[in-house]
UniProtKB/TrEMBL annotation:
It comes from Trichoderma parareesei (Filamentous fungus). Residues 1-99 are annotated as: Disordered. Residues 307-477 form the AAR2 C-terminal domain. Belongs to the AAR2 family. GO terms for biological process: spliceosomal tri-snRNP complex assembly. Signal peptide: none annotated. Residues 79-96 have a biased composition (Basic and acidic residues). The lineage of its organism: Eukaryota, Fungi, Dikarya, Ascomycota, Pezizomycotina. This is AAR2 protein.
Length: 531
């Protein structure tokens, strides 16, 4: 009988073991361990041999009835660490914010750092260096961005992009409730976007928050941490206070309920990108060609679901005659019907929040679809709802105040204003404001002394818009030039007649009416001195 080969001379393959490679990383570790029993991910701890907890004392009957068979005793490994399951959960407190009408969410991770004063913390993992970071109304280039601390309650919007490829941006909304919540997100290197890490990773990062909390960017003053901030941005206390007040005007109506309905269901954050689409939007020829050529999975985008789609009509086929004409020219009845829909049940703040969402995503991420949605809501709904100041004055005032804040932010706070003089939408906005002012004056004059405080507030809100467009050279209450001469570049003068407000001029006592003519082409029912 031949001698047995010593076990120490057997190769790895002969012993049934995997061959050793140059890489120590296991490519199957994340797939081979799907679950860890009753212990969640993140509950493993490294302990010394002397730190092992004593075994639980219990009766043999209980062990036989409910406990699995004991494992083999652990061999003593002097001087080495071992991995052990921890029966104690991580020292992280969990809370679930109580929101009326909110969606079902997982427990949130909170911190208990001294001096937190109820402020939330945002952690962004693995973000490359020297990325451009946006935080509400502020933006700065951070050498190493870990996150933001001291976040006050309310909605907040963050976005990141590489300085050399600023055309494509990715962002996300979070909701702070003053419960010292820790929001953990992670940079996805493959898709170059922000995503949510595993719950285990989020818990692990929250456990070590006290070790790097001082390295996070303060929400109220980013210049305290990052010395490389552009000083031209003017991070003075006065400017920071103005930025905080402006953000409340821009996003004060956004709630978790609105974010879930428009963007979609998420756990603690709601993600948007430059390439996201809007459901019901009118696509241009280039977008239709792109959809035809590229498969759906090549486009890392999703559709945002606003309550007022661009392809919807403001009237229904059930209405005929003068009522249909009124519905086609006045968006008040359409807006109220959408708000009263049982599937939506929109409040006044919900409508204002959708106008705020479209503007914020559009101007901060350069999202063309959201910019078009904003123009649709402004030109086709807000400034076309002529009866809204009388029927729903609170909603009308909120929408006008919101529009005034957006026009101010676009003109004074952004590098590129949304009101491009060469764009046709800007000219339509000017005409829409002129018409809306006339109709608003008619409504308030018709109410007279019967006008309520809320209805008078609508006039005050529109005055804010008037003050913002003065810088553009727009006079909404002045005489409108219908006909005149224009000098061309070669010095030639030509006659020009503007017919943009012809329909508005032919209203009221100047409106055309249908009359009956006789066989001679003369109007009937008139007194004639010749017959």
């Amino acid at each position: 009988m031949p001698d047995a080969t010593p076990a120490q001379h057997l190769s790895a393959s002969d012993r049934g073991l995997p061959k050793r490679t140059g890489s120590a990383r296991s490519t199957k570790s994340h797939e081979s361990v799907a679950v860890l029993g009753a212990h969640p991910y993140g509950s493993l701890q490294l302990v010394q041999p002397g730190e092992l907890p004593p075994p639980d004392e219990g009766s043999d009957e209980e062990e036989e009835a409910g406990s699995p068979p004991p494992l083999e005793p652990i061999t003593s490994l002097d001087g080495q660490r071992r991995v052990q399951f921890s029966d104690d959960p991580p020292e992280i407190r969990y809370r679930e914010p109580s929101l009326s009408g909110s969606c079902e969410t997982l427990d949130t991770i909170t911190h208990s750092l001294a001096g937190g004063q109820g402020a939330d913390v945002l952690l962004v993992l693995d973000l490359p260096e020297y990325y451009l970071v946006g935080c509400d109304t502020m933006s700065f280039t951070a050498r190493q961005f870990r996150g933001v601390r001291d976040i006050p309650p309310g909605p907040h919007f963050f976005w990141v992009t590489h300085p050399e490829s600023g055309a494509v941006r990715t962002g996300f909304f979070i909701m702070a409730y003053g419960a010292q919540q820790v929001h953990v997100l992670q940079w996805d290197k493959f898709h170059e976007t922000i995503s949510e890490p595993s719950r285990a990773e989020a818990r692990f990062q929250a456990e070590g928050l006290d070790t790097f909390h001082h390295l996070l960017v303060p929400y109220n003053d980013p210049s305290l941490i990052n010395s490389e901030l552009d000083k031209r941005d003017g991070f003075t206390q006065t400017t920071l206070n103005r930025k905080s007040k402006m953000w409340k005007r821009l996003a004060g109506s956004i709630t978790q309920r609105v974010l879930v309905r428009v963007i979609g269901q998420h756990i603690t954050s709601w993600h948007v990108d430059t390439t996201d689409r809007v459901q019901g939007a009118l696509h241009v020829a280039a977008e239709m060609e792109l959809d035809r050529r590229l498969p759906k999975h090549y486009l890392q985008s999703k559709e945002l679901r606003f309550s007022f789609p661009q392809n919807a009509k403001t009237y229904t086929a059930d209405v005929v005659g003068a009522d249909r004409t009124l519905a086609a020219t006045d968006a008040t009845s359409y807006m109220m019907s959408v708000m009263n829909d049982g599937n939506k049940a929109l409040s006044d703040d919900d409508v204002v929040a959708e106008l705020q969402l479209a503007f914020i995503i559009g101007v901060h991420l350069g999202n063309h679809a959201c910019i078009q949605q904003w123009w649709h809501m402004v030109l086709k709904l807000v400034l076309k709802a002529f009866l809204l100041p009388e029927l729903r004055p609170v909603l009308a005032a909120k929408l006008l105040y919101c529009l005034a804040a957006q026009l101010e932010y676009s003109a004074r706070w952004l590098d590129e204003t949304i009101l491009d003089p060469n764009e046709p939408n800007s000219n339509e906005l000017r005409l829409a404001l002129i018409i809306y002012k006339r109709r608003l004056d008619e409504v308030l004059e018709g109410l007279g002394d019967q006008a309520t405080k809320e209805q008078l507030t609508v006039g005050t809100a529109f005055a804010k818009i008037e003050s913002e467009v003065v810088g553009l050279g727009w006079e909404l209450d002045g005489d409108y030039l219908r006909k005149g001469k224009v000098m061309m570049e070669d010095g030639e003068e030509v006659d020009v007649e503007m017919a943009e407000l012809q329909a508005e001029d032919e209203r009221g006592e100047w409106a055309p009416e249908v009359v009956e003519l006789d066989e001679h082409g003369r109007q009937r029912d008139l007194v004639s001195w010749h017959d």
